[in-house]
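User: Could you go from structure to sequence for me? I need the amino acid at each position, not a summary. Structure tokens:
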């Protein structure tokens, strides 16, 4: 993500502590794994899962950080959520692994490429199944790990071009036509939603009702590079949400505090009072309504909502 430090700092109420200093100590080779009871109902016939998890959130002094390089949480037996250590990368992106009976999809490859921890952790989850590494969008904090997967057995890394994305997911007309991918007994819908970035997509899992929105919507600063495209994309996403059961909306970062309208300073490596990762279908509707009200001309300054901030850059 390309971010404006001054804008982010101005929006922040300066809760918590200042950013840490550089990288932390070496993390264990494997990621920490949280157990997942089915305590979050799916509803509407959806397969349930759990978001009862305490995410690692960095340290005041990263030199003393003892968190693993990667945290792995089982939403259920076939959906895993991975978070990278904030002291290794302040972006601390969330990555997602979704398994079908014949193959698996990983959404994003993270913001670091220094070790094989991510690759090994994913293989530990899915075994020898063919793995498709796709991306919510092409920014470096979502593609940095690609080199660790490229050329590996049973692994396909989808290039971050419209042509490659359209071919992989069967998107006929970009960005208006929806695509799909069948992982074996599990069909995912793929929507082109440019605006934050030109090749951005959203992915919907019909089995769990999870909607993965990357950097288009998450609890944080929603940076918009193409205002017109973003408004159109969010309107299309809102239409999709209105006609599909949504259990949770899961983005790629957490940058908000648990206090309404407050974001952490850009680049912080310590977020002790984070907003939850998950948003809801109502947040998609709220974002769409806000963009409609703002109109065709982007506002001159960021617009803060309780759970996200619209930033037209």
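Assistant: Here is the amino acid at each position, in order:
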């Amino acid at each position: 993500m390309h971010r404006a430090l001054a804008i982010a700092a101005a929006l922040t109420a300066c809760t918590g502590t200042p950013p840490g200093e550089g990288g932390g100590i070496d993390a264990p080779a494997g990621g920490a794994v949280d157990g997942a009871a089915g305590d979050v109902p799916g509803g509407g016939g959806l397969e349930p899962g759990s978001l009862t998890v305490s995410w690692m959130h960095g340290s005041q002094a990263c030199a003393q950080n003892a968190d693993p390089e990667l945290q792995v949480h089982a939403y259920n037996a076939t959906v895993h959520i991975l978070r990278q250590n904030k002291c290794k990368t302040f972006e601390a992106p969330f990555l997602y692994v979704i398994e079908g009976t014949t193959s698996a999809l990983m959404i994003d490859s993270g913001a670091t490429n220094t070790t094989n921890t991510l690759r090994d952790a994913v293989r530990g989850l899915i075994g020898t199944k063919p793995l498709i590494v796709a991306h919510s969008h092409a920014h470096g904090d979502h593609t940095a790990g690609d080199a660790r997967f490229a050329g590996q057995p049973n692994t396909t890394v989808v290039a971050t071009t419209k042509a490659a994305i359209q071919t992989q997911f069967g998107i006929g007309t970009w960005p208006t036509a929806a695509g799909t991918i069948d992982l074996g007994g599990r069909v995912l819908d793929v929507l082109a939603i440019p605006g934050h970035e030109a090749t951005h997509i959203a992915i919907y899992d019909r089995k769990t009702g999870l909607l993965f929105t990357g950097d288009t919507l998450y609890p944080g600063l929603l940076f918009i590079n193409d205002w017109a495209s973003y408004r159109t994309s969010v309107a299309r996403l809102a239409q999709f949400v209105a006609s599909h059961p949504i259990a949770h909306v899961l983005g790629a970062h957490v940058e908000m505090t648990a206090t309404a309208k407050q974001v952490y300073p850009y680049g912080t490596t310590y977020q002790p009072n984070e907003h939850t990762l998950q948003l809801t279908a109502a947040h998609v509707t709220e974002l769409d309504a806000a963009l409609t009200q703002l109109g065709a001309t982007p506002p001159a300054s960021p617009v803060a909502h309780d759970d996200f901030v619209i930033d037209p850059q």
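One structural detail worth keeping in mind: Residues 227-242 form the longest helix (16 residues).
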